[in-house]
Amino acid sequence: MAKDNNILPISIERVTSVFKMPHLNNELLLIDSLHSLPVLTEPRRMSLCLYIGMCTSGVATLTVNGKQRSHSHQQVMLITEESVITDTKFSNDFDGFAFLVSYKLLQEILRDVHNMSDLFLLSHNHPVFTLTEGEIFAARNYFHSILTHINQPKKRYRTEIIRLTLLTMIYDMACAFDRVIDQPGKNEKQSRSEQLFVEFVQRVEHHYHEERQVQWYAKQMNVTPKYLCEVVTNVSRRTPNEWIDKFVTSEMRNLLRHTNMRMNEIAEVMNFPTQSFFGKYFKENVGVTPSEYRNGVEP
Fold this sequence. Notes:
Structural class: alpha+beta
Strand content: 15-25%
Largest sheet: 6 strands, antiparallel
Oligomer: single chain
């Protein structure tokens, strides 16, 4: 497989320029049949959007950030921004439907931070989970409702109706979210903590290349490092350092496996002072050396 230093993006804008799929500006794209998706042999990186795919038959396997995932009947798959996808394989009967939703749209419609934190926890901790038959049926109905309005470009309040329908679907699936996340004592009083958690993860997503200190993020958020640690751990069951390491090691894996960048170049891009520090960090967090990982050794 040919590799270079650029992993091509998957964005709503890019997909709509290649495929004729129903979409709302660069905010929302609908995929009516997962069976029609192209097989990816070259790596692609999700850009500025969240993939929400629902399988209705068959099985798909794909590698996301170096980990093989399986997507089968009545399962939802969530693929987040910056995730790298490759090696997709579909069974002959694989099918389903999917949404590509921009993070800008999600942030605008999910003003209730409780729901936003649920989506963050699901997408990062439970990227594949099972729905009931009724939940899949309801999601399909929401999909067709949105599709109907997308296909009526001159309809008054079209955009508002589409946004509200998407928000309603997310509310309707809240029980499934709670069932998967299964956090004891979860209630509306946690909203302030959840808001801080979401803000923290968003900041890490955008700054993990340069910043790996909890103190830096706490300062940007105007809270103490101790308070940030307590909040993030209580909401997500992961410490801030674990979240930072997750993003950093995921990107290092992608650069090692899917580009021809030299070790010193990756160390520089990831803001390590030396290649030696980069190698030590990778070995401590992944379990093998960067060279071993690039050569196919799995931890």
